[in-house]
Amino acid sequence: MARIDGRAADQLRPIEIIPNINRFAEGSCLIRCGNTHVLCTASVEERTPPHVPEGEGWVTAEYAMLPRANRERSRRDIAKLKLSPRSAEIQRLIGRSLRACVDLAGLGERTITVDCDVLQGDGGTRTASVTGGFVALALALWKLVQDGVLPEMPLKTCVAAVSAGIVGDELLLDLCYEEDSGAQVDLNCVMTGEGALVELQGTGEGRSFTIAEQQALVALCQKGIREIQRIQKQVLGGGRDENGISQQERP
Amino acid sequence: MARIDGRAADQLRPIEIIPNINRFAEGSCLIRCGNTHVLCTASVEERTPPHVPEGEGWVTAEYAMLPRANRERSRRDIAKLKLSPRSAEIQRLIGRSLRACVDLAGLGERTITVDCDVLQGDGGTRTASVTGGFVALALALWKLVQDGVLPEMPLKTCVAAVSAGIVGDELLLDLCYEEDSGAQVDLNCVMTGEGALVELQGTGEGRSFTIAEQQALVALCQKGIREIQRIQKQVLGGGRDENGISQQERP
Amino acid sequence: MARIDGRAADQLRPIEIIPNINRFAEGSCLIRCGNTHVLCTASVEERTPPHVPEGEGWVTAEYAMLPRANRERSRRDIAKLKLSPRSAEIQRLIGRSLRACVDLAGLGERTITVDCDVLQGDGGTRTASVTGGFVALALALWKLVQDGVLPEMPLKTCVAAVSAGIVGDELLLDLCYEEDSGAQVDLNCVMTGEGALVELQGTGEGRSFTIAEQQALVALCQKGIREIQRIQKQVLGGGRDENGISQQERP
Amino acid sequence: MARIDGRAADQLRPIEIIPNINRFAEGSCLIRCGNTHVLCTASVEERTPPHVPEGEGWVTAEYAMLPRANRERSRRDIAKLKLSPRSAEIQRLIGRSLRACVDLAGLGERTITVDCDVLQGDGGTRTASVTGGFVALALALWKLVQDGVLPEMPLKTCVAAVSAGIVGDELLLDLCYEEDSGAQVDLNCVMTGEGALVELQGTGEGRSFTIAEQQALVALCQKGIREIQRIQKQVLGGGRDENGISQQERP
Amino acid sequence: MARIDGRAADQLRPIEIIPNINRFAEGSCLIRCGNTHVLCTASVEERTPPHVPEGEGWVTAEYAMLPRANRERSRRDIAKLKLSPRSAEIQRLIGRSLRACVDLAGLGERTITVDCDVLQGDGGTRTASVTGGFVALALALWKLVQDGVLPEMPLKTCVAAVSAGIVGDELLLDLCYEEDSGAQVDLNCVMTGEGALVELQGTGEGRSFTIAEQQALVALCQKGIREIQRIQKQVLGGGRDENGISQQERP
Amino acid sequence: MARIDGRAADQLRPIEIIPNINRFAEGSCLIRCGNTHVLCTASVEERTPPHVPEGEGWVTAEYAMLPRANRERSRRDIAKLKLSPRSAEIQRLIGRSLRACVDLAGLGERTITVDCDVLQGDGGTRTASVTGGFVALALALWKLVQDGVLPEMPLKTCVAAVSAGIVGDELLLDLCYEEDSGAQVDLNCVMTGEGALVELQGTGEGRSFTIAEQQALVALCQKGIREIQRIQKQVLGGGRDENGISQQERP
């Protein structure tokens, strides 16, 4: 079965990550996964929420879609006075995924808020947000190091994310909107650079799925994430030359 | 390592399901999994939300904790004017799980809302809500059949749920609160009576986890769910005798 | 005229109070007045709201109905983003009634919040909440004494509540839902153990009522409250034996 | 004991009712009871809320205080995103009291909303609102009759309200703010022109009160309401001369 | 073209300002511009919001319409859980206008909140609010001086406001509601006593307007504001006699 | 006095408008005025709000800033449950400005919502939103014409907007953030292609301003708007070649 955009079953959509897209944020990027575009900014604040132990930092995320990110315009959350439950679920996932990377004691008593705003959504916005959110977070941490605020990067690992699904009984990597809306099973993986799982969410939308199918979907994601992490590294590798000078600063 | 309540690593907490606990709801039960107590009611309304195709029905869920369900009192959602994001995430999970069981065309143009209110929470409230919510849902559907509203049960399958986790590098089934709050990995499974997955959510809280660990946790859940479904069947089996007469009716 | 459930005009519905129903709350009970079931928990917090004078404590109440407590499912307050005005009115009544019992200086700088959540409502939920709320409050205070936090019970009096009404020109005690919804006059009394009034609310729903009728309704309530207080005392009397050892502690 | 403003124990504050104070409302008045000033408007809309039976009308009330109606400025409800619970309680009382006067079938399928906005509050705002709200309501009904919309006034009775209380063991009528804030017992009566009770609310603020005290307070209110209703009649009597021509129209 | 109320094109509606209308507010007035009636109160609080520099004060404004201020009843903001966007816009204008008059350092670390509540609206409510709000503000400041809290009036200038518009190609001063709702162009000016602009807002509602028209409208407003400021001075001049004794105090 | 970015006093920042930036919206652009970046989408819906006369259409606007559009991160409106009053004011201005261009009868019974989301803000976000919003609107209308939904463009005129201000007594065009935050006077103009005013808002932030100053600021804006409209035309001119074929379609 040919995919709607001609990709192979285990092929990612083209990914582009433009770092430092926002002039004010400590870290930022625009991530494009096919027609899914997410603006990610990481903001550092010198205080922590009450539930955080003394001496530690905090990393959190917020996720939202612009009103016309989709085929039909959605009303803004503020017009309905309710955070979209879907956004609530997604931003909790992003937050947990990013916190898994950071040594919170090493971060010190500060909060990094990663805002993921979907400018255009064509499937896979939550996984693009994790992947782009990690880049924004790492850039913000790198800035704290360069500014002498932190002695070293408080990163334990890196994360990236992708989806896989079963569409018409075929296992496909990185579903676009048309595929996703017709998928029988949809599974998202967040993984570290070492290939270990950080988050795993699978849903049988049209039918239940066997444990064997679940394992095959995770394997497909693992392959995709390896490629995504190569792109992340290219973007972040440009963050410092051999003298430790950042090349991401604006001229 | 001994568990806090003396259970074996793959042993469930005692489960009790009291059906028809609410005199007004079309279906209801109180489910107790150890010290986790959830009141589940299924309410039938003769209309559907706008997004539902003509001729079909809808199944949805709401989840909330009473203010003192936990060790410390929480403020009510209405006092904060915000649905708890955690509740939003959980009620979406319950709703998807229960919809997976129902033939929505067979249900006809009506909505069943399953309310899961946690009276006391000691870990595993979301999985207890799925397990108990299914019982309430099935009782409500059975009432529609008995009342002649539906010709037959529009159930495609049954579901139950349980959690497993890694605590101090040991794999344990059905975590209670103390275990859950110290767990390194937490994984929830919703499965059908046939042992297929409906929902799967795994989170590395203290560390990431390997694919092998993930598979072992799913296997542990599968074992537990088989036992839970036996209890569900006892409760629901009491719903009709060999003549099809319900024995759950109040005298 | 026979009452719908065969009671005499001045007869209460069967009352059952199960103390310590919640494992976490400092005090709690489940009260059942006929088919009206209210879960009451009393939570102690070591701080007071800003309006409370230094050195004093505070007692407050919250009241809510579960969505399917009634014949028809109600939307949750949080779905409407508004505290139900009826709940607002009722929780103010409960709060005033319970505060009337407590020596706030003797309580010290702490707040007791009594949550009354109606699991099933069949008329008289506000009076059942006052009666059960007092039990939960007294158990919480007793725990503070037993734990050595307070030197003695800061209770000035005890309270209980009941309704009476005029249905088809007959004066009836303790109206159930069917009676209440057809009542011409509805009157609620909160009284102390000594038979003095703490709160009195009368409403002419179908017609106005004479002062003589009002007095007869209060007398009817007074009779009922005397019986209710006997049940409260049995429950609370079990709270300590002659050696001052509580028998309500979990083993 | 002399009262703060020199009144006798059973003496009302001076009452002034200025009818037709608002040029747009179908009925309106400004009521001044001493330093308590409430602007009451009655607005007619040609539709009813969903819960009203076909063929019948509805009467409802809203109550609010301007931010500086009191000694200290209060934040507006909208700034807190919550209807004040006290306002919720009071507007339910006003609504029930006014509905008790109206033949809802005679009103036809229309809603009258009586808005009571406290410009200045010095105790007794809820009873002034009932008294003034009735005048606004009657003027609006009279306008419907004059406009030929209704064949006759759909009024079953008239209502007025006043408070009485126990201050330092003395029974006083119509408490002003200073008296009210030091009162041991506070009781509000809404009564018809025939002296029957419509609403009765008594609260033991500093102590409980005996049934004899309660009865004495109601008697005191009854005396006051008789005088208030004479003033209401003067104002409303001016509403039509012997030819049925309204004298309240602006020239 | 004759105006609806017979005024000349450059003639104001009758203006009346009743100072000290509210017994509790530090400053207050009721302003009537024709049938537009606004109650203005100025409340002093001994604290400032966080964004205010140390040692300085703050002046802010809130604006609202009573539900029946208009031809049709509007729902209250709290019933919609949203501050009316029009009110938000207007209260920002009033706040900026009044802050322009005050030496915030001279005010000291206190906040003056000017509440402008429209009792009846017939066009020009925002300009009447600025004009009346200034009077309330000045009276509150004068009270601070009289009470010895401030050594001198921290007023840099005085402000008043009026609208002008183009109706049927005629330039008219001080539009009433009927004129305003048919106006092609509507322009509001806030000016100081010296005739300088503080705020200027012009809107082409039916058509765009030339720079020459804009200038003519500003000139018309300037003429009107001169007259309004004379009335303000009369009211405020009465605030103290040659001995510095306020004549506005209630006897 | 040299400007912070070396511009002449009457010089605009570089402006770039990228049309059709959003794949789903009927019209869209990204506008960059210096470091101010606004994403504008125009969404067509085949219904109108209740207040719109039958047979006519409606044009409305919404405005918001992403959390990190500014130097410091702002909390989202939904986290505060309040539409920012500043956003409320600005989106009303944008809506009025865009409605002034459109023949609402010619649009037919449909609504166009123009969303202006500030990705990065460096002063002048409201005027950039008007300028970019007009481009998005015109592209959406052109699509309706191309799709045969409308027989011709229902545009009466075009609009663009810019600010001017007084900084240190110098009159400057198109203030950036640093200039704006130190400005004594700030004035925004929305003008048609013919140089007539549609909206005019001037504010004396540090001091009041003379009529002569006001006129000079409007003249400065008029010069700037002429240049902006040339850029708008280039972008929109590309919308159709001499054969009427749109060149803005994606390949």
Automatic annotation (TrEMBL), chains A, B, C, D, E, F:
Phosphorolytic 3'-5' exoribonuclease that plays an important role in tRNA 3'-end maturation. Removes nucleotide residues following the 3'-CCA terminus of tRNAs; can also add nucleotides to the ends of RNA molecules by using nucleoside diphosphates as substrates, but this may not be physiologically important. Probably plays a role in initiation of 16S rRNA degradation (leading to ribosome degradation) during starvation. Phosphate binds at R86, G124, T125, R126. It comes from the Bacteria. It comes from Lawsonibacter hominis. The gene is rph. HAMAP family: RNase_PH. Its EC number is 2.7.7.56. Residues 11-140, 159-210 form the Exoribonuclease phosphorolytic domain. Belongs to the RNase PH family. This is Ribonuclease PH.
